[in-house]
Write a structure and sequence with these properties.
It holds the Pfam family Gly_kinase. By secondary structure, this protein is α/β, with parallel strands linked by helices. It folds into 2 domains: 145 residues, 3-Layer(aba) Sandwich (Rossmann fold); 220 residues, Alpha-Beta Complex (Glycerate kinase, domain 2), CATH 3.90.1510.10. It is built from 13 helices and 13 strands. It has a 6-stranded mixed β-sheet with strand order 3-4-5-6-9-10, sandwiched between helices. Strands 2-1-11-12-13 form a 5-stranded parallel β-sheet. A two-stranded antiparallel ribbon has the order 7-8. Strand 1, helix 1 and strand 2 form a beta-alpha-beta unit. The protein is elongated, with a radius of gyration of 22 Å. The two termini are 20 Å apart.
Length: 384
C-alpha cells in the first residue's frame, strides 16, 4: 500500500515536518510494510521557506532588517536552485515578532520586508516568491516601497513616517530612485487572500482587529488606505483600489502591484507545482493531508483542499487529520476531501492539546487506518 502524506503545520503545536513524521509513525504502528512518501507542504504562510528549502535542496540566507516597530532583527529567507528567493513577510514584518501590547497597525511598518527583497537582489535573485501571511502591518506596503527606494512626501515636501497613520499625509510619490533591479525581476505574491484594499471586505476591516486595531482605528486605517490608493491611481496609473488581493497583508498586495509589478498566485498551488507533488500521486493508493483547524475558509487556498484537488485527478481517496473542526468544514467534501478526522478523542484543554499534539496525530493515524482497513475488507467481501 502506497500512501502520500502532504500535511500542513498545526499552528502552535508542530511544524509540517513534525506533523508528517507523526503521521508516518502512526502508519507504522498500524502496518510496518506500508510505503510512505512524505511531502511537507505550506500555503505561502508560516513554514513556506523551510518547506521549499528542504524539498528543493536550497539554502538559508539571513539579513538584518527592521521589525514592524523599527527594531533590528535577523530574518531568514531561502534561496532555491536557479537563484530563486523565497521570502516569508512574517519573518520581517510579522505578528510573531511583537508582543500583544506592541500591536498597533497605526505605527507598524513593512520596511523590513523591503529590506529582505533588497538582500535577495544582492544575492543575485531575479525571481522572488513572497509569502504574505501573518503580517502585523496595515501600511499598504508603503514601508516596503520606502526600503526599495520609493519616496512618499507630504505637503511640505517631507518624507512621511512609518505606519498606517502616516498614509493620509501622502501628497506625492516619487519612484525615480527605486532600485533598478526591481524592473528586471519577477516577484510573485503567494497568498490565498482576494480582499480589496478598502471597504468592509478590505484590509483594515477584515484583518485589522488581529493586528490590534480598534473600531475607531479601523475606520481611520481604511480611510488612509483609500487616500493612498487614490494617489497611486492618479500619479502611477495603477488602480490598486479595484484589484483583487490588493488588501493582502494590510495592503502590501497593493504596494507590490504598484511598485513591483507583482503577480498574485495561490500559495498552496504554487508550492504543489514547485514540489512536483503530482509525480508522487500517480501510483499512490491513499493521501493523508490536514491542518490545525479545518473550516469554511479551508476551501480558499488552504493546504488540504489544494492537495485534495490534485489527488482527485487520479481518483485517490483523501483523509484530512485536523486539530479542530470549525463551522463550514463540510464544504471541503465538495473539493476533494473524503473524510475529516479530529485528533482530539475526548474533551481536552487547548494547552493539553497543543502540548500533546504530535502523539495525538500518531494515535489518530493508527486508529484511522484500522478503520480504513475494516472498510476495505467489507467492500472486498461485498464484491466477492
Amino acid at each position: 500500500m502506497k500512501i502520500v502524506i502532504a500535511i500542513d503545520s498545526f499552528k502552535g503545536c508542530c511544524t509540517t515536518f513534525e506533523a508528517a513524521d507523526a503521521v508516518e509513525r502512526g502508519l507504522r504502528y498500524y502496518r510496518d510494510d506500508v510505503q510512505v512518501t512524505k511531502i511537507p507542504i505550506a500555503d505561502g504562510g508560516e513554514g513556506t521557506v523551510d518547506t521549499l528549502v528542504s524539498a528543493l535542496e536550497g539554502e538559508f540566507k539571513y539579513a538584518n532588517v527592521l521589525d514592524p516597530i523599527g527594531r533590528e532583527v535577523k530574518a531568514k529567507y531561502g534561496v532555491l536552485p536557479g537563484n530563486i528567493a523565497v521570502i516569508e513577510m512574517a519573518a520581517a514584518s510579522g505578528l510573531p515578532l511583537l508582543s500583544n501590547y506592541e500591536l498597533n497597525p497605526l505605527t507598524t511598518t513593512t520596511y523590513g520586508t523591503g529590506q529582505l527583497i533588497i538582500d535577495a537582489l544582492d544575492n543575485g535573485c531575479k525571481t522572488i516568491y513572497l509569502g504574505v501571511g501573518g503580517s502585523a502591518t496595515n501600511d499598504g506596503g508603503v514601508g516596503m516601497a520606502q526600503a526599495l527606494g520609493v519616496s512618499f512626501k507630504d505637503k511640505s515636501g517631507q518624507e512621511i513616517g512609518y505606519g498606517g497613520v502616516e498614509l493620509s499625509r501622502i501628497e506625492t510619490i516619487d519612484t525615480s530612485l527605486i532600485d533598478s533591479r526591481i524592473e528586471k525581476s519577477n516577484i510573485s505574491i503567494l497568498s490565498d487572500v482576494k480582499n480589496p484594499l478598502c471597504g468592509k471586505n478590505g484590509a483594515s476591516y477584515v484583518y485589522g482587529p488581529q493586528k490590534g486595531a480598534t473600531s475607531k482605528t479601523i475606520e481611520l486605517l481604511d480611510s488612509n488606505l483609500e487616500h493612498y490608493g487614490q494617489i497611486v491611481k492618479e500619479q502611477l496609473s495603477v488602480d490598486v483600489l479595484s484589484m483583487a488581493g490588493a488588501g493582502a497583508a494590510g495592503g502590501v498586495g497593493a504596494g507590490l502591484f504598484a511598485f513591483c509589478k507583482a503577480e498574485s498566485f495561490s500559495g498552496v498551488n504554487k508550492l504543489i507545482d514547485l514540489m512536483h507533488i503530482e509525480d508522487y500521486l500517480k501510483d499512490a493508493d491513499l493521501v493523508i493531508t490536514g491542518e490545525g483547524r479545518i473550516d469554511s475558509q479551508t476551501i480558499n487556498g488552504k493546504v488540504p483542499v489544494g492537495v485534495a484537488k490534485k489527488a482527485k485527478k487520479y481518483d485517490l481517496p483523501v483523509i484530512a487529520l485536523v486539530g479542530s473542526i470549525g463551522e463550514g468544514a463540510e464544504k471541503t467534501y465538495e473539493h476533494g476531501i473524503d473524510a475529516i478526522v479530529d485528533i482530539i478523542p475526548s474533551p481536552q484543554t487547548l494547552e493539553y492539546s497543543l502540548k500533546n499534539g504530535i502523539s495525538l496525530i500518531e494515535s489518530t493515524t493508527e486508529r484511522t487506518m484500522r478503520l480504513w482497513n475494516t472498510s476495505e475488507k467489507s467492500c472486498h467481501k461485498k464484491l466477492v
